[in-house]
Amino acid sequence: MGAQWMLAPFLALLLVAANADVAAQEKVIPVTAERFKFTPGVIEVKVGVPVVLELTTLDRKHGFQVPDLKIDETIEPGRVTHVRIVPDKAGTYDFHCTVFCGSGHEEMAGQIVVSP
Amino acid sequence: MNEPKGRREFMQLLGLGGVVFASGLAGACTNILRKSVAQEDDFFFVQLSDSHWGFKGPPNPEAANTLRQAVAAVNALPSAPDFVVFTGDLTHTTDDEAERRKRMREFKAIVADLKTPVQHYMPGEHDASLDWGKAYQENFGPTHYSFDYKGIHFAVLDNVSDPQAAIGDTQMDWLLADLKPLRPEAPIVVFTHRPLFDLAPAWDWATRDGSKAIDLLQHWKNVTVFYGHIHQEHHFRTGEIAHHAATSLIFPLPAPLSQPKRTPVPWDPAHPRRGLGFREISVDESRLALTLKQDSLEGVGAAQPAAASGG
Ligand SMILES: [Cu+2]
Question: What is the rounded CA–CA span in Å between residue B126 and residue B94?
Fold first, then answer.
């Protein structure tokens, strides 16, 4: 989906260093994972407004993958996974759980909606 | 002397309007149908997949019978396959470890009726991803292995015991060591559950490190991959490697990314078992041409009452 998302793979590294600073200034959206859904299931963001997703699990290990944004993370119990998104193209981006978590895993999915 | 007769019957079966798909094992174009005389050294095997034993729900109201029907249909083939391979998701997943093992025992009891003595199994994520393949291995043995049969090298890859759908470096090293003695032209068939290529990552139809496996396999010129997981026929090529997905024995899934969610194709009472079936793969004497034939369960007789409880 273009160069605008090339930063995503490096986010994990950046966030380790920048987490405290970034969290202070950027919009944080908490997202919880549990068998077999994400809450919110639709994450709404705006073009040009960077956000940090704060991913936690309510039960077991899950995954969080947004193939079109090259985001691929795991969500471990007792840990917060931060994903920084810099949306610069409107559209809908599907995400889903990538850690098989039981009968219903196939339905564990949601969308990031980037509005202009 | 029975063998030539068996072959001839199989030829006739191929001609009976089933979907025949000639699959070049890398460029070879011999088609078994074009031959007027059966080669005595031809053979065929059957691929079954995704029976999800233990599943209950509207997508298949006959779920307690479908696997039995498939076993009966394979037994009823005009000639017996040399072996049967089952490419994963033998059982439907459950959190209950005792129930998981019970489903595996029930599955084994049903496939014990297969008349073909040689059977090869591998897990799907429903069998193995909640316990890293523990219950599967107790019941079926190793999750990856290889064997040779009549000049073809067969390798079974496990891309499901890791719940994140990875083959992993240990198994990748094993695969390399397993294939290394083979000459570059050696015919190789790979069985696995998930697609090795990125068919539809958004639907989890991929293997995390599948591209590594494909890069490795590309050093050999005659590689064909048979897999399951996506509950429908699908044919794809990466370089010289042909990849063929099989139908399931529980419910069909929609074409890749053809709708927002990968929900099962609804059961159609007017066409029970539509989209469910198994595949015959015949191998010619050169071992370089495979012919695929799809057998549907749609035409088989009405379901018999389940002998067992059906779990
Ligand atoms: Cu999950």
Answer: 8
The CA distances from residue B185 to A27, B201, B216, in Å, are: 57, 31, 14
Count of A-B CB contacts under 8 Å: 40
**Residue carrying structure tokens 């990125």:** B198
Q: What is the mean pLDDT of each run of 10 residues along chain B (311 residues)?
A: 37 36 39 45 96 98 97 96 98 98 98 97 98 98 97 97 98 98 97 98 95 98 97 97 98 96 94 96 92 91 46 33
Task: Give A67's contacts in chain B (Cβ within 8 Å).
Answer: 201-202
**Domain assignment of residue A6, yes or no:** no
Rounded to a whole number of angstroms, the distance from the CA of A69 to the nearest CA of chain B is 11
* Domains within chain B, CATH numbers bracketed: 43-309 (3.60.21.10)
Please state the ipTM of this predicted complex.
0.81
Residue A103 lies in a domain: yes
Provide the domain count of chain A: 1
A65 touches chain B (CB under 8 A): yes
Task: Tell me the pLDDT tens digit for each residue of A33-49.
Answer: 999 999 999 999 999 99
Closest chain B C-alpha to A65 CA, distance in angstroms: 8
Q: Report if residue A13 sits inside a domain.
A: no
Neighbours of A42 (CB within 10 A): 10
* A100 Cβ under 8 Å from any chain B Cβ: yes
For chain A, the residue count is 116
Q: How far is A27 from chain B (nearest CA, A)?
A: 26
